């Protein structure tokens, strides 16, 4: 496995780890990234508020490949007890984005030193607020243009996968996810005279039941999907029928065209509410688009992963998850691939899931991820790729 730049990678990762910042508030983080890229001789500029983009031009014109890292920490109180644990009370890099930034900075450093060896451009993108779909603002602000991006690579350190493993599948990999809020409006009244009121709670419970049949009767059993109610809000006292009830939750799917579930959900909710004499207001908003890897890009990245890992590691292709990831938004504009980099290693204390207060990573995998980014970018720009 690769061991170059090990110390600097760890130093950078721990520096980011100490000072986690929430999405769109990554001010300190942004200034470190800007300064580092500036010192490499690049011309970084802020984008999307607290994001950063820098373009490296090779020796001649050509296609453009983009590498992306996310920047945000989480509202989690760290309990790792590590010497470089979070200094920002109540905030933590509990998803590994600190490592993503360190890897991309070192990848940029290596690629700058090799710019005579490729034609085309490389765009280094540091994206804020991944946890809450921050990618779209960068796209609105032109991250995919000037120069136009032809291909995208990204990766995520992955706690469910053993260290030494890189997993990249073809096609759908991370869920398309929508959030819904359904307000059911009845008519309030005394609990003893239900016939004088219109009870939104009984309507809400009927909606929750009826929606289950979308999954069991309308969807192909081979198409993975989740329709989950996560919040039920209604009522103020035991003897009052409330005016309204609100249901919130998430609809997720892992196959192309899963958006048809949204219509089935709307139809079911509206008709059930009407049957219970209530009115309803439904809003469904996009969380993350389906993340679907382009098979050619995924295959390129797997080839490079096999070289980086050598005989000591494993390249697999099996992880599909109902978690969302806004890397998907870039893939709506250019083909790309997203890799999971295993960091689960009991010897390194890295056994806790993402977003856990004791989450940590096996830092030995940072050079591997860095080299994977470097090689994938060079491979994309190589003649005939
Ligand atoms: Zn996360
Ligand atoms: Zn993450």
Overview of the structural elements:
The chain has 385 residues and is of the alpha/beta class. It folds into two domains: 6-174 and 290-381, Aminopeptidase (3-Layer(aba) Sandwich); 176-288, Alpha-Beta Plaits (2-Layer Sandwich). The chain contains eight helices and 16 strands. The chain has an eight-stranded mixed beta sheet. Strands 10-12-8-13 form a four-stranded antiparallel beta sheet, with helices on one face. A hairpin with a 3-residue loop joins β1 (45-47) and β2 (51-57). α1 (6-18) packs antiparallel against α3. The radius of gyration is 24 Å and the shape is elongated. The mean pLDDT is 97. Bound molecules: zinc ion (2 copies). Residues 95, 97, 130, 156 line the site of one zinc ion. Residues 95, 131, 354-355 line the site of one zinc ion (ZN).
Gist?
The protein is α/β, with parallel strands linked by helices and 385 residues long. It is built from eight helices and 16 strands. The structure holds zinc ion (2 copies).
List the helices and strands and how they pair.
Elements: H1 6-18, H2 27-39, E1 45-47, E2 51-57, E3 64-70, H3 97-113, E4 121-127, H4 135-140, E5 151-162, E6 165-167, E7 171-174, E8 176-185, E9 189-190, H5 200-218, E10 225-234, E11 240-241, E12 244-253, H6 260-275, E13 279-288, E14 291-293, H7 295-309, E15 314-316, E16 336-344, H8 366-381
Parallel strand pairs: 3-4, 3-5, 5-16, 6-15
Antiparallel strand pairs: 1-2, 2-4, 6-16, 7-14, 8-12, 8-13, 9-11, 10-12
Helix pairs in contact: 1-3, 3-8, 5-6, 7-8
Bound molecules: zinc ion (ZN) (2 copies).
């Amino acid at each position: 496995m690769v061991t170059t730049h090990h110390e600097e990678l760890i130093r950078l990762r721990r520096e980011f780890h100490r000072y986690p910042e929430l999405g769109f508030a990554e001010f300190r983080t942004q200034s470190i990234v800007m300064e580092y890229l500036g010192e490499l001789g690049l011309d970084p500029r802020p984008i999307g508020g607290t994001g950063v983009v820098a373009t490296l031009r090779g020796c001649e014109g050509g296609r453009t490949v983009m590498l992306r890292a996310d920047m945000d920490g989480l509202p989690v109180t760290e309990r790792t007890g590590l010497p470089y644990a979070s200094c920002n009370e109540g905030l933590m890099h509990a998803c590994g984005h600190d490592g993503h930034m360190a890897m991309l900075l070192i990848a940029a450093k290596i690629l700058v030193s090799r710019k005579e060896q490729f034609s085309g451009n490389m765009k280094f993108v540091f994206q804020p607020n991944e946890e809450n779909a921050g990618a779209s603002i960068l796209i609105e602000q032109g991250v995919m243009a000037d120069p136009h991006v032809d291909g995208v690579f990204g990766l995520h350190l992955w706690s469910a996968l053993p260290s030494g493993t890189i997993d990249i599948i073809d096609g759908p990999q991370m869920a398309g996810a929508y959030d819904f809020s359904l307000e059911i409006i009845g008519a309030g009244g005394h609990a003893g005279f239900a016939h004088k009121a219109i009870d939104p709670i009984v309507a809400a419970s009927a909606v929750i039941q009826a929606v289950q049949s979308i999954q069991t009767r309308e969807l192909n059993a081979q198409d993975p999907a989740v329709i989950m109610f996560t919040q039920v809000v209604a009522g103020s006292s035991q003897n009052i029928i409330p005016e309204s009830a609100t249901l919130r939750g998430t609809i997720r799917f892992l196959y192309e065209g899963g958006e048809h579930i949204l219509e089935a959900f709307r139809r079911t909710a509206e008709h059930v509410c009407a049957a219970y004499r209530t009115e309803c207001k439904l809003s469904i908003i996009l969380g993350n688009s389906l993340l679907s890897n382009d098979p050619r890009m995924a295959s390129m990245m797997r080839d490079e992963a096999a070289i980086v890992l050598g005989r000591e590691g494993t390249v697999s292709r099996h992880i599909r998850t109902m978690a969302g990831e806004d890397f998907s938004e870039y893939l709506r504009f250019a083909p790309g691939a997203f890799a999971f980099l295993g960091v689960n290693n009991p010897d390194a204390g890295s056994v806790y899931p993402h977003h856990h207060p004791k989450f940590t990573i096996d830092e030995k995998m940072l050079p591997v991820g860095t080299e994977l980014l470097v090689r994938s970018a060079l491979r994309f720009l190589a003649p005939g790729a």
